């Protein structure tokens, strides 16, 4: 096989011909709307991939348009020819990652982040514990008063303002591995805690467990689970994503559960695509298919079990900002809305464009901050038109991004962003 044929295979060149350049994707693409450039639209990116695969352009020509893509998959929901944009995107990112010239320092940083930091529960606990100390010791207040946080890289000054309250190290480590409250249980489930969810949104994870228990489920938390691999796949590190998938499949199939629960739209989207990582007919593909069949968002399972009776009226107006990956990849749309509508006293006002991305997209808002803020501004214009007292989300990245949007708009005294499970617990379900 020639070098060009190898490149075409990695770029999923054959799939680019499904795109007929009709332009249906243009109104759905956030980066096309904010950047107003054809190269930053889905069809423009596909055309560039095709040109590179044919030797008419270089991989360098692809780098900026591909790295500026949110990967929100909104284009796939409107595409009349069912273009597999996600496969083209991840294949292209893998090629870019392989051919990109990197300094030794960047190589070391990537190895640390993707091979050691995100897959490690110890590192995630350390991140959570350090954030707790930063909040409780007064360092956060001091840094904000003196302006010291402004010298931090990657706009950390903005994000640290909207971090949720962190649990103590003791509370984090005292969490059990198995919970059961009602016998017989309504279902036996395993909870995928997620790396960022468990380190930064620990209380939301606790509320997820509690909601499942109040629904009568038995809840297991496999100790050997790891990062879902979404960040790895989205940055072109497919082999690392495969290894993490194998680790998670192995960890969860040891327990004979009815569901594998997640509460993060981005993580869930990767989990339900594990079978795409392996060649059909192989043992790992078969195991991945069985794994995927059990993966469910927390909202779907709570609706299916239907055992929650909300006791406390909240008497507030809320809007729902759906996770792109939960909507466009997992196909979960109705369950969160159904749960919100069950809460007494809550008035749900839907956004004009709920499916428009908030600009978080994993770590997009960190590595492409300015572009992300342009997208967030469009989203917040929609939110301000609804003027809710609460913005409900279903993904940690979306939650931080919407909190940042509230902060940027100066709406802290009027509105806040909250994860769906936290809103449900606030209504005292029994």
From TrEMBL:
The lineage of its organism: Bacteria, Bacillati, Bacillota, Bacilli, Bacillales. Gene3D superfamilies: Alpha-helical ferredoxin. Its cofactor is [4Fe-4S] cluster. Keywords: 4Fe-4S, Electron transport, Iron, Iron-sulfur, Metal-binding, Repeat, Transport. Its EC number is 1.1.99.14. This is Glycolate oxidase iron-sulfur subunit. Residues 9-40, 55-83 form the 4Fe-4S ferredoxin-type domain. It holds the Pfam family CCG. Binds 2 [4Fe-4S] clusters. The keyword Repeat applies.
